[in-house]
Structures are given as C-alpha cells and as structure tokens.
Amino acid sequence: MHADHSIPPPTPAGAPPFLMLILSSPSGAGKTTLTHMIQERFPELRFSVSHTTRAPRANETDGVHYRFTDHETFRAKVQSGSFLEWAEVHGNYYGTSMSEILGAEEDSDCSGIIFDIDYQGARQIRARIPDVVPIFILPPSMVELERRLRGRGSEPEAAIARRFSGAKREIANYALFDYLVVNDQIDRAFETLASIIVAERSRRSRRAGLAEYLLRHDVIVPDHTAISS
C-alpha cells in the first residue's frame, strides 16, 4: 500500500499524488451531499464503499452506497483481517475493506480515495496510514442539526433521538481531525473542502518524490538541450 512508502513515488508533473481523504460528521451535518459534490468536482477521487450490517434504505443500492451484509459474514471478515477499520455505530457494524484501497491504487484513472466513516474508523486509519487527510464536518448549531435530522423524514423518532444524542460524542472527538469545516451554507462548505484537497496535493511530503526525481534525472532547459544531473 502507498502508506508503507516513506517518500511517495514520483509522478508526472501534471499528475496529482494519491490522496486519502476521511470525511466524518455527526448524522445530519451534510457529509453525504458534500461527498457527492467533491466527486463531481474531482471525479478522479474514488468513493470507498463500506460494508455494513444495517438494512438498506429505499434509495440505496448494494455495492454503490454500501456493501450490505449480515452479522455473521461481517464477523468472519473481521476475524480474517479483511478490514482496514471497522466499528459499531448506532447498533450496526461498518467496515472498510483493504481491497477498496488496493483497487483504487491500481486504477490508473484514480488519484485518491474518500472514506465516509465515523471517528472510530478515523482513529484506526490514522494509526495505519500517517498521511491520510482527516476532515470533520460540523453543523452550525445543535438546533440546526436536529432540524436537519427531522427534515429527512426517513427514520422513526427513536432513531432520530439516538443519532442526535450521539452527535456531541462524535463532535467531542474533533481532535482526531486535521480540518474542521462548518457546513452553515453548503456551497461555502464545499469550496472550503475543495481548497483543502488542492492544498494537500501540493504538500511538500506528497511532492517530495517528484522533486527528488527531478534532481536525479535529465532536465530539459529552455533551449531543449538535455543536461545530465
């Protein structure tokens, strides 16, 4: 995996380095909408499809939104070490398969992956992949968060209450993340996320391989004469 390299392998000057993004938030903060907007702006970033034991919602497709499975199959994958991270969230299990990252890294049209996970998964991935970019989406207020949860109209009152009560616990783990983005206005929050992606791709640690590569190979000067370094 890319995370095992101390210096990223060189890439062509115009090609972005492989980027791993974590997007996390309490339910209702707008993470799903922002993820879709990121993929529209940056189609080269692949969405990591998590495994889950919860039942699919009416608008969800297996293999697209989640890989829906039962508890027995999920536990077997945990025992076999198939997951990069996994956690229990709101009474169900969620996990990210190692194959999601390997498939993204092997795809020539892909230059990064987006993990839609909670703070437990973020902690696990950070421990294994130091250069991951963890971002937490905050609601502008708890009143607005509750309004958004109720506005979905897709869950019973008990589920809404459970998600709202867990929101402060999730927010309390904000220190696990490098960036905190307030979603008070969706377009503004998206532009902030896009700026983070652009900046992270230019980080020295991600471009060091290219710089060192240029220092050790022929350089094309203005008169098109090759000079060996």
Word description of this protein:
The chain has 229 residues and is α/β, with parallel strands linked by helices. The protein has a domain at 12-48 and 110-217: P-loop containing nucleotide triphosphate hydrolases (Rossmann fold), CATH 3.40.50. It has 8 helices and 11 strands. The protein has helices at 31-41, 71-79, 98-106, 119-128, 142-152, 157-171, 186-201, 204-215; strands at residues 19-24, 45-47, 51-52, 67-68, 83-89, 92-97, 112-116, 133-138, 179-182, 219-220, 226-227. The strands form 3 sheets. Strands 2-7-1-8-9 form a 5-stranded parallel sheet, with helices on both faces. A hairpin with a 2-residue loop joins strand 5 (83-89) and strand 6. Helix 1 (31-41) packs across helix 7 and helix 5 packs antiparallel against helix 6 (157-171). The radius of gyration is 20 Å and the shape is globular. The two termini are 31 Å apart.
Q: What is the 3D shape?
A: globular
Range of strand content: 15-25%
Give the distance, in angstroms, between the N- and C-terminal Cα atoms. Answer: 31 Å
The CATH topology of one domain is Rossmann fold
Oligomerization state: single chain
CATH C-level category of one domain: Alpha Beta
The strand line-up of the biggest sheet is 2-7-1-8-9
* CATH-defined superfamily of one domain: P-loop containing nucleotide triphosphate hydrolases
Give the C-alpha Rg: 20 Å
Number of strands: 11
SSE topology string: EHEEEHEEHEHEHHEHHEE
Instruction: Summarize model confidence as the mean pLDDT.
Output: 87
Number of helices: 8
How can the largest sheet be summarized? 5 strands, parallel
Helix content estimate: 40-55%
SS-based class:
alpha/beta
Low-confidence stretches: 3-7
CATH architecture of one domain: 3-Layer(aba) Sandwich
